[in-house]
Amino acid sequence: MEDTFVEDIFKEMDSEPIIKKVTQTIKTKSIKKQEEKTMTVIIKKMQKIVNDKPGTKAFVDISINGQVSIMGLNVVETKTGELFVSYPESLNVKTNVRYNIITVDDLELKQEIEEKILALYRR
Q1: Domain segments of the chain: what residues?
Q2: Which helix (H) or strand (E) holds 100?
């Protein structure tokens, strides 16, 4: 009985069911988002630290698409001489455990951020 009632309402509206329209809209928006996936990473500031010891070698601030800024990234050198980018984190003093403040879930964007930072650092 409920199904015929709903069908009658849609017949009276003389249009496609609302659910179908919403589904189509969501699909359209998700396709548009995938097409618009170009991100511009700009390094706003890099402050190098000159020392011969492993550890933090530079402090970095970046901007993504001129809309989001991330401050407090670090270029870190390991004991074996490898470089990596460390993202901002918070330290719980009671437990001495560090927690990430920023994580980049898009692997392509994360790779682009890290490549640009390390390339500039190596200049």
Answers
A1: 2-35, 41-122
A2: strand 97-100
Read off the pLDDT of residues 48-75 as tens digits, 9 standing for 90 and up. Answer: 999 889 999 999 999 999 999 999 999 9
Q: What amino acid occupies position 10?
A: F
- As a whole number of angstroms, the distance between CA 55 and CA 84 comes to 10
Buried b or exposed e, range 28-47, using 16+ CB within 10 angstroms: eeeeeeeeeeeeebebeebe
CA distances from 85 to 24, 55, 58, 89, 111 (A): 41, 11, 10, 12, 10
Cα(78)–Cα(89) distance, integer angstroms: 18
* Fold of the 41-122 domain: Arylsulfatase, C-terminal domain (3.30.1120)
Name the nearest CA neighbour of 122 among 87, 88, 86, 75. Answer: 75
pTM (predicted TM-score): 0.67
What token pair was written down for 23? 């589904």
